[in-house]
User: Fold these one by one.
Assistant:
Number 1:
Amino acid sequence: MTATKRTVAFFGATGGSILACLTLALKAGYNCSALSRSPSKLQTLLLQRSISQATLDSHLTIIGGDIRDLQSVSQTLVPSRPGTTNHPVDLVVSGIGRPPIFAPNPLNPTFDDPTICQDAIRTILAALRNLPAASPPKPKPWLFVLSTTGISSRARDVPFLLTPLYHWLLAVPHKDKKEMEAVFLAEASKPAADRGMENFVILRPSLLTDGARLGSGQIRVGEEDEIGGTASPAVGYTISREDVGGWLFDELVDGKGKEKYAGKMVSVTY
């Protein structure tokens, strides 16, 4: 960690993995911003995780708005706080998504927003490309995004027993996340001056659970480099949202893993 902590913008912070990462960032003293359709809900969730009101007031800026609204996203990337000079954040963490709707037929789940992931990333990238220049100049933000296993075009990254579940139950969100990843790769292929981000890491967890955090020692990590054409994913059944958020914070936000995993899809599982 550097002496001056990086500033971090969060999208999808009321979801389990990103909420876990935001919690750790606030406990470590990072200055954070978060976009939420329900700011009061996000505050309540953080208070329930033993984040004090004083910490929320001093280290978190919550912007109320929708992920498809360019102005709201831009405000999250350049948060305004009284008494401070507004600068673009250093890191962007996104885990936007929607859960399946199992009623009225649990065997035929539906999704009320089948393009939310790709739309979210397109909006974030558009806002990043139009960020005001920082003074003094600083590198563009890094972007870390939550995706999923089961969508690799290079290697199998889910157990055979889960393949029917992934192709049936999760076909709609997986199509969305695959398109989201394609948007990333298209952005990464642009000249450095034209793209909105310094670099990126796509995190692909296996099937998410609500279990407790077990720690990095219980997590297996694999890599896929679509640009380089290599793939050695970690194949497993599940991982908790708490462990995904913890790994994301420890390795990418607070640690030096972003250089190791730059431009790659990283699979994490037990």
Number 2:
Amino acid sequence: MYEQSWEELAENSDGLMEYDDRTLYSTWNLSLKQVAAQDPEAAKLFRLMGYLGNADLWYELFQKGAGSAPDWFCDITKSKPRFNRAMRTLRGYSLIEAMPGHYSLHACVHDWVLEYLIGKIDIALFGLAIHCVAENVAPETMPEYWVVNSRLNHHALRIEQCHQKEDVDWEVVNVVDIYEMGYLNHNRGRLKEAEAMYVRALKGYEKALGAEHTLTLDTVNNLGNVYSAHGKTAEAEEMLLRALKGKEKARGAEDTSTLSTVNNLAILYSDQGKIAEAEEMFLRALKGFEKAWGAEDTSTLNTVNNLAGLYYNQDRLAEAEELYIRALKGYEKAWGTEHISTLDTFRNLAFLYEYQGKIAKAKAIYLRALKGYEKIYDANHPRVLALTSYLEKLMSTRK
């Protein structure tokens, strides 16, 4: 009945803005007042949902954000039965719908919450929404991190929509949460949004902790990576050199965080065609990671893969192939065949085989990598778009 009624609504309207009699708004307002009378915390939770995506809302999304949240939010997330009781109240008034493993709001209700019920952005609720998402962001060192981050994707898009609608005082938003939103956007390939979040986080860390604090330097490093991916090479080099200098001073030249920045700077130098500098940096990072974590650690393998790319670009194909195969075997052992790092190495090895004229072998590996990417990313992700385009060109020129 719920879905049928909304389908009828969609068929007989051109959008919420055209309901001049405001009958639906009045009905929803009345429903929410009744919810508030029964369970005030449930009504507040419903308002919070306006700042999140509407299609996939689950208990842990909220529960992980309860650490430093207001009392009402801690109460409603203290246990799954308490949370589900609040959601049942909302569902009883057709404000949400229960789905297998999660809840959702219809798009019309979702927009009403933000545009008409909330109106001006409530910075406390907006910050809480960001905190919930940020606390769920999975680092790339976590197996299948992309599964978690993909689920957070539409929440990040909604947060972006909200702050584009109205200026936000970012100084009152938790700087760690802003950093995590930058990480999530970068991970999902939204470089413009990632850059904006990292710039905000950097400003916050510099103000709170100083320019040489390790959290500040980590943000500088990540911002440099975003600039590099964006093709802003001068800005990238400035940020990465700043991060490297600061980390060497704070943590030492052989610290693994320092070595990560060395690796990132080597990638930038490789992209700039500074081959000698890139190789020197890659070898430094590789030696350091092997010493600190061993030959099969994934950070070591990342540098092996990157060094292979440098050798490939220099036509040192035998060395490149040896390193790609080493990285691939290591990733498959550590992460499995469908991890992003494994798929990236399949793709890189396919480049090499195509260059060597091993077309059938290259095509098979390209398709394997693309199939894996399509399981992880949406169709507009840079990895999917780039490999699809490249494979189409390969197929057309080989007919």
